[in-house]
Amino acid sequence: MSTIKVSIVSSSEEIYSGEGTMVFATGSLGEIGIAPGHTPLLTGLAPGPVRVQNGDDEKTFFCSGGFIEIQPDLVTFLSDRAERAESMDEAEAVKAQELAEKNMHDKESELDYTKAAAQLAEAAARIKTIQKLRKNK
Amino acid sequence: MANTKEVRKQIASIKSTQKITSAMEMVAASKIKKTQNEMQLGRPYSEKIKEVISHIANSSSEYSHPFYEHRETKKACFLVVSSDKGLCGGLNINLFKQVIHKSAELKAQGIESNFALIGLKAASFFKSVGGDVVANVQKLGDKPDPDALIGLTKTVLDLHRNGEVDQVYLCGNGFVNTMTQQPKVEQLIPLPAEETDELTATHWDYIYEPEAQELLEGLMTRYIESLIYHAVIENSACEQAAKMLAMKNATENAGDLIKELELLYNNVRQAAITQELSEIVGGAAAV
Question: Which of A10, A89, B76, B226 is the most exposed place for a label (fewest CB within 10 A)?
């Protein structure tokens, strides 16, 4: 089976580098599936899970915002922050979501709205990733 | 001639200084490992984003980004990366010398310069030299946070967007090895043209989602940010290496000084004994 070279990097470390037969990710305009031989595509990366399938083996990673570059033989995820989904703690994620929600509703707070909304989206995506991972188990 | 008490005091004070410098040497030596490690960890990202950028440069893109545009230069901006703390030999001053040199060179061509500074040392240097400082970030600590640099980067890029600055230079120390650090001044904007590779041979372009302009704008900003972040990390590795070397030298020098002073101390002590003896002998003879 043909494969595509996958690399997921964040500004502070390399998260994953290897082959995949199919990759799923959340682009800025919606979910995309990437198979080997994909046409060159450049798109934003929305916070959410990235799944890399290699035959029967599947790995899940969490990426916050960034960019995806796709060439026919390779796909690169440039994430501002990425982590292995296994290492994520749901309690932490829920806490982050609560904080973000509070910041958003808190009219008094000086935090600007867009920043809070981005925080909330990231926390929600994190929780989504963990739940997806649980379901697969 | 100095008396023994004075010399002894001097030796004690130099010994305590030596203890401090050797402790600082050891601290720097342990920090080098950490900073070098961080440099390694950040490398995949900068390599990958460079790859993506070079792919974009080689594609026949519908939109050409202003960072590639060579325009008539009237003003240049120097982004100077320095350390927050001193006691690291000539690390900072060597870099500043190069920056000043380059800025004078540009001035001869009628190009004015301004400065965006990272680190306390750069801030105090350019305050005393007198330069037009547009942005300043300090106290990043041993583990620089990429978020702390966003403001500075944005200021510089906005200046470029508004046409107030036409060229941007990134100045920082390059880590060669623990003994050698190389100050370098590199052109950041306009981005140097990429060498062509096999990708250019065919006419191709990306599909952009959403618009090319919006996407490239974001990606280019991230690229510049990653370059600056990398320069900061590299500079902090250089700082620790230079500090270790400077402190090692200081410890050795203190050792030499102590040896000399001990010789002097023995001389003085011997002279005092001889004098006392001759006084006793003289006194006995008089009786």
Answer: A89
CB pairs under 8 A between A and B: 73
Which residues of chain B lie closer than 8 angstroms to A67, CB-CB? 52, 215, 218-219, 222
Pick the CATH number of A4-85 from 1.50.10.20, 3.30.700.30, 2.120.10.30, 2.60.15.10: 2.60.15.10
> What would be the CATH architecture of the domain defined by A88-136?
Up-down Bundle (1.20)
Average pLDDT over residues B227-252: 92
Q: Check residues A12 and A19 and name the one with the higher pLDDT.
A: A19
Residues 70-129 of B with CB under 8 A from A: none
Q: What is the 3-state secondary structure (H, E, C) of chain B?
A: CCCHHHHHHHHHHHHHHHHHHHHHHHHHHHHHHHHHHHHHHHHHHHHHHHHHHHHHHHCCCCCCCHHHCCCCCCEEEEEEECCCCCCCCCHHHHHHHHHHHHHHHHHHCCCEEEEEEECHHHHHHHHHHCCCEEEEECCCCCCCCHHHHHHHHHHHHHHHHCCCCCEEEEEEEEECCCCCEEEEEEEEECCCCCCCCHHHHCCCCCEEECCHHHHHHHHHHHHHHHHHHHHHHHHHHHHHHHHHHHHHHHHHHHHHHHHHHHHHHHHHHHHHHHHHHHHHHHHHHHC
Instruction: Report ipTM (2 d.p.).
Output: 0.71
- Per-residue pLDDT of B192-225, as tens digits, reads 766 555 555 566 778 887 788 888 888 888 888 8
Pick from B38, B146, B219: CB nearest A67: B219
- pTM of the entire predicted model: 0.81
